[in-house]
């Protein structure tokens, strides 16, 4: 259950957390420089998904869902989840990033590969409007495609680290690129981030993962809360206004 407190400091910290998925605060002055725009206007017109023009609002809700799930597996389950590069490298603020939605890594031994190391790949679906379909089943079905997207997504993350000279992190991703030579445990996940009104209309018990290629290691997650789209817009507007 997602029930944020009406606390200005908490909301400001949360908004900054979202903003820094799109640009590091330390880089904002330089990147906005020369545009003639304030930090807030630069974020609204260049980096953050649009609040009103489609597909901006749906992209906001989708990004929100991905970030919430990434936070969950990182801070509650203990996975390393490098996700900012997924959003910072976008060329079009209103175009979603392709590939696996959320990828987490867990290492039994930081120095050497271990068969108990884990690769956790999540497909997320947000449902924040009355017309939303069975988003958890949608997530399960689309998670099947991660079998093909996994290799390309790992390569993209590794490449981004390499381009930034962060070779140590690139090597950590590389550890999961050849399961035959370096065995590890693969876990797949399907998550639905739902407004309470949508949650009440979905029969979650009917969700079927039998056709999933990794059904024995398929984890389901539902995050729900009231007026989620209102919360999403409030966080993005605060992220821009307080930059």
Query: Would you count the extended β strands for me?
Result: 4
Strand order within the widest beta sheet: 1-2-3-4
The rough form would be described as: globular
How would a crystallographer describe the biggest sheet?
Answer: 4 strands, mixed
Outline the low-pLDDT stretches: none
Written as H for each helix and E for each strand, in order along the chain, the element string is: HHHHHEEHHHEHEH
What radius of gyration results from the CA coordinates?
A: 18 Å
Q: Helicity range of the residues?
A: 40-55%
Give a written overview of the molecule.
It is globular, with a radius of gyration of 18 Å. The chain has one domain. It has helices at residues 8-22, 25-32, 39-47, 56-76, 84-88, 135-143, 146-163, 167-174, 196-199, 228-241, and strands at residues 102-106, 118-127, 185-195, 218-225. The protein contains ten helices and four strands, in the order αααααββαααβαβα. The chain has 243 residues and is of the alpha/beta class. 46% of the residues lie in helices and 14% in strands. It has a four-stranded mixed β-sheet. Helix 1 crosses helix 10 (228-241) and helix 4 (56-76) packs across helix 10.
Task: Produce a short descriptive summary.
It is built from 10 helices and 4 strands. The protein is of the alpha/beta class and 243 residues long.
What keyword list fits this structure?
4-stranded mixed β-sheet, alpha/beta, 46% helix, 243 residues, 14% strand
């Amino acid at each position: 259950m997602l029930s944020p407190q009406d606390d200005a400091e908490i909301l400001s910290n949360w908004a900054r957390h979202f903003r820094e998925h799109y640009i590091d605060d330390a880089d904002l002055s330089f990147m906005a420089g020369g545009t003639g725009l304030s930090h807030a206007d630069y974020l609204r017109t260049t980096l953050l998904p649009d609040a009103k023009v489609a597909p901006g609002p749906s992209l906001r809700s989708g990004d929100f869902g991905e970030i919430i799930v990434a936070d969950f597996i990182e801070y509650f389950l203990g996975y390393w989840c490098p996700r900012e590069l997924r959003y910072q490298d976008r060329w079009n603020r209103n175009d979603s990033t392709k590939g696996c939605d959320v990828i987490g890594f867990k290492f039994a031994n930081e120095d050497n590969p271990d068969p108990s190391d884990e690769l956790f790949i999540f497909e997320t679906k947000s449902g924040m409007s009355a017309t939303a379909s069975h988003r958890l089943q949608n997530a399960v079905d689309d998670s099947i495609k991660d079998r093909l997207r996994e290799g390309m997504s790992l390569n993209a993350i590794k490449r981004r680290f390499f381009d930034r000279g962060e070779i140590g992190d690139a090597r950590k991703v590389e550890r999961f690129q050849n399961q035959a030579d370096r065995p590890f445990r693969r876990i797949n996940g399907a998550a639905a981030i739902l407004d309470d009104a949508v949650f009440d209309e979905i029969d979650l018990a009917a969700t079927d993962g039998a056709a999933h290629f990794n059904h024995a290691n398929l984890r389901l997650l539902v995050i729900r809360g009231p007026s989620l789209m209102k919360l999403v817009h409030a966080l993005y507007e605060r992220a821009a206004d307080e930059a």
